[in-house]
Amino acid sequence: MELAENAAGAASEPWIGARDLAILLLLYGAGLRVAEALSLTGAILPIGQTLRVTGKRSKTRVVPIVPAVREAIEEYVRQCPYPVSRDARLFVGARGGPLNPDLVRRVVAAARRRLGLPDTLTPHALRHSFATHLLARGADLRALQELLGHASLSSTQIYTAVDAARLLDVYRHAHPRA
Q1: pLDDT band at 136 (very low <50, low <70, confident <90, very high)
Q2: Cβ-based burial of 162 (10 A; exposed 0-12, middle 13-18, buried ≥19)
Q3: Candidate list 19, 61, 70, 150, residue with the active-site label
Q4: Marked catalytic residue, from 33, 61, 70, 112
Q5: Across the chain, which distance is largest between two alpha carbons, in Å?
Q6: Pick from 123, 122, 62: which is nearest to 91 by CA?
Q7: 6-63, pLDDT tens digit by residue?
Q8: For 99, which DSSP code?
Q9: This prediction's pTM
């Protein structure tokens, strides 16, 4: 993902770039919210095929972890100059303390500007892209609801409107009688 790679390349230290890459890949590749990614602790290590995430209203869900996300997290842990313990936050700031969610938003905004992307590309938009892409590939709406940790199906159904709009646009441009 070009945005994540751009953010990583612009970091002040290689380990900070590895951290930013791992976080952004978690948002897009696993559909996590910023707060969910930043609340992960060293207890998730070693990363397996899935990850248990605690989201809004302390709801726990299990999300699959694709190899690129796993590798990015492992590389961050290898490069991080601070010890990673089971009970401490996995992603830390430059001085070793908890990472502020605003920093993630600023990293995305800076990369977005460098790449000339629209202001609508936010960390949360990466989560929306995760959902939209899964739905476009035929994911079941109920399964998507579980992956996103939505309390109600109506929260997940917004993605069907996005996908339907995209399909209608493709139809208008491709169908000879549209």
Answers
A1: low
A2: middle
A3: 150
A4: 33
A5: 62
A6: 123
A7: 999 999 999 999 999 999 999 998 889 899 999 999 999 999 999 998 888 888 888 8
A8: P
A9: 0.79
What distance lies between CA 72 and its chain's CA centroid? 12
Examine the residue annotation and report whether 124 is marked as an active-site residue of this protein: yes
Query: Is 127 annotated as catalytic?
Result: yes
In angstroms, the CA 27 to CA 160 distance is: 20
Q: How far apart are CA 153 and CA 140, in angstroms?
A: 11
Active site residue 33: yes
Q: Where are the domains of the chain?
A: 2-174
Residue type, 136: A
Tokens of 14: 């290689």
The active-site residue out of 19, 112, 127, 128 is 127
* Contact (CB, 8 A) for 110 and 20: no
Asked about 150 being catalytic, the answer comes back as yes
113 is catalytic: no
Which of 113, 124, 142, 166 is labelled catalytic? Answer: 124
User: Does domain 2-174 bear CATH number 1.10.443.10?
Assistant: yes
Of 56, 59, 78, 142, the catalytic one is 56
